[in-house]
Design goal:
The chain has 491 residues and is an alpha/beta fold. It has 21 helices and 17 strands. The strands form 2 sheets. It has a 10-stranded mixed β-sheet, sandwiched between helices. A 7-stranded parallel β-sheet has the order 3-2-1-4-5-6-7, with helices on one face. Strand 16 and strand 17 form a beta hairpin. Helix 10 runs parallel beside helix 21. The longest helix is centred in the first third of the chain and has 19 residues. The mean pLDDT is 94.
Length: 491
């Protein structure tokens, strides 16, 4: 059974500390290498029984040591094995050298490898800790393997892929399968790393859970285990106001589609009442296109002040199709003590007024959620967006700390970051979610969960996950309207 500890993502630097702590606890580190290498060999034999040659590419570190253990195990199994080494094997030290000496193989230079039909490459050159561009010798091998379409089984992480950021360092293998040990790294889930890793297997090599948990930190995969306990419990005595009243702001009459999709998704996600607050000239359009969703006139800040006099109006979605950026800024200035999802135009409205937004958010009660896509994130946080040394997780964490809002940094690898430093990476999204209006649906789901009393971070994380599940139900070729109809509460 999956536990929360299995969801944690371990930074490569922290993983090195975990290995060191295991050694200090009395576990021989070579034993860990032996188990890792044996697991690699078993994976290769299990998944590639048709291979005519198993080509093990080794580097000069512990990843290479895993490769030498795997090569020895494969030879003992009767497989045809060739080993190629990057650099001079004389430079091998410690456990990697022990693994090499016990393997009994004589490696060839890495640059001598020429892919043949029937080969399967076991990539044990660099692990997750790589922090520099790969050497040209390896680049040429990567290009040759890619061109020949030779299957690659990567050890820990495809060589060339940054374990922290999930981006290639000059070049990277595209693995068909990757086997890593004890815990996944951020680079396994962040794009394009997730695609470059192929099918991922996590193998337990025997480091005690207490050591992992002591170093696990606050980054994990988004999963119901992270947030399900924070969702509202079903109660037979509940009523519509106890299930929350969500207000979704509308734009002008010609741009009501976005708010309608957000409102419909919010109802589907369990909000007790959803009201679209719209300019009076848009009410006719809304009244003929919405049934279960209520409508209310709201032309200006005075109307909003009157609306806020009712304490049941505590949760809002602002931005989808809103259009009027000046009015968006006025509305945000009045919502500082409410639970608010800011999306689309409500984010763009503060492109030149960032400090005003952050001052308003930090003066509230920590209930703001910002849901920027890549371009919107760059409008609010241009320095973070341009910093290539930060991972998407780190960018979202810094942005959340700076703004005091929960950040939903959208994309194929959406990152949700909380003001307390927690962050989760979502993995259940489908490619079909990349369609106009999909973000409006997401804003409605998050707003519905917040209206029901779910804390902002958990509402954002759950909303993103439920959005992904709706995408699977709606299927390929869906529209945002299909997606909204496919939303379901978490059961």
């Amino acid at each position: 059974m999956k536990s929360l500890s299995h969801l944690f993502l371990i930074d490569p630097v922290v993983m090195a500390r975990i290995d060191a702590a295991a050694g200090q606890s009395g576990i021989p580190l070579y034993d860990l290498m032996e188990r890792a290498g044996q697991a690699v060999a078993a994976s290769a034999l299990r998944h590639y029984p048709q291979a005519q040659r198993l080509i093990v590419l080794c580097g000069g570190g512990n990843n290479g040591g895993d490769g030498y253990v795997a090569a020895r195990a494969l030879l003992h199994s009767g497989a045809v094995v060739a080993v190629h080494h990057l650099g001079d094997v004389v430079a091998l030290r410690g456990d990697a050298r022990t693994a090499f000496e016990r393997s009994g193989v004589t490696p060839l230079p890495l640059g001598d490898y020429r892919p043949l039909s029937g080969d399967v490459v076991i990539d044990a050159v660099f692990g997750a800790g790589l922090s520099r561009d790969v050497p040209q010798e390896l680049v040429r091998v990567i290009e040759a393997v890619t061109q020949a379409k030779v299957p690659v089984l990567a050890v820990d992480l495809p060589s060339g892929l940054c374990g922290r950021r999930g981006v290639p360092l000059g070049a990277s293998f595209r693995a068909e399968r990757t086997i890593t040990f004890m815990a996944r790294k951020p680079g396994h889930l962040l794009m394009p790393g997730r695609e470059l890793c192929g099918t991922l297997e996590v193998f337990d090599i025997g480091i005690p859970s207490r050591i992992l948990e002591a170093h696990s930190g606050s980054i994990a995969e988004n999963d119901p285990l992270v947030w399900r306990s924070a969702l509202p419990a079903d109660d037979l005595e509940t009523h519509k106001f106890r299930r929350g009243h969500l207000t979704v702001f509308s734009g002008p009459a010609h741009a009501t589609g976005a708010c309608r999709m957000a409102a419909l998704a919010a109802l589907k996600a369990g909000a007790g009442i959803v009201t679209v607050a719209a300019p009076r000239q848009a009410l006719d359009v809304l009244s003929t296109t919405l049934t279960a969703v209520m409508n209310a006139p709201m032309d200006d800040a005075d109307d909003l002040r009157s609306w806020l006099e009712d304490g049941r109006h505590g949760t809002f979605v602002l931005g989808p199709g809103f259009g009027d950026l000046e009015k968006a800024r006025q509305f945000v200035s009045l919502l500082g003590d409410r639970a608010v999802v800011l999306d689309a135009d409500a984010i763009t409205a503060f492109r030149d007024h960032k400090e005003a937004l952050f001052a308003r958010v930090t003066s509230g009660t920590g209930k703001f959620v910002l849901t920027p896509h890549e371009g919107e994130f760059a409008r609010l946080f241009p320095d973070l967006a341009a910093d290539k040394m930060l991972s998407k997780i780190e960018k979202a964490q810094v942005a959340s700390a700076r703004s005091d809002a929960v950040l939903v940094y959208k994309g194929a690898d959406t990152v949700i970051a909380g003001t307390d430093g927690r962050a989760v990476v979502n993995t259940n999204a489908t490619a079909s979610l990349a369609t106009a209006g999909s973000g409006d649906v997401l804003a409605g789901i998050i707003g519905a969960l917040m209206a029901q009393g779910t804390p902002a971070f958990e509402a954002a994380a759950a909303g993103v996950w439920l959005h992904g599940e709706a995408g699977h139900r709606a299927g390929s070729g869906m529209t945002a309207e299909d997606l909204a109809h496919a939303v379901r509460p978490f059961v």
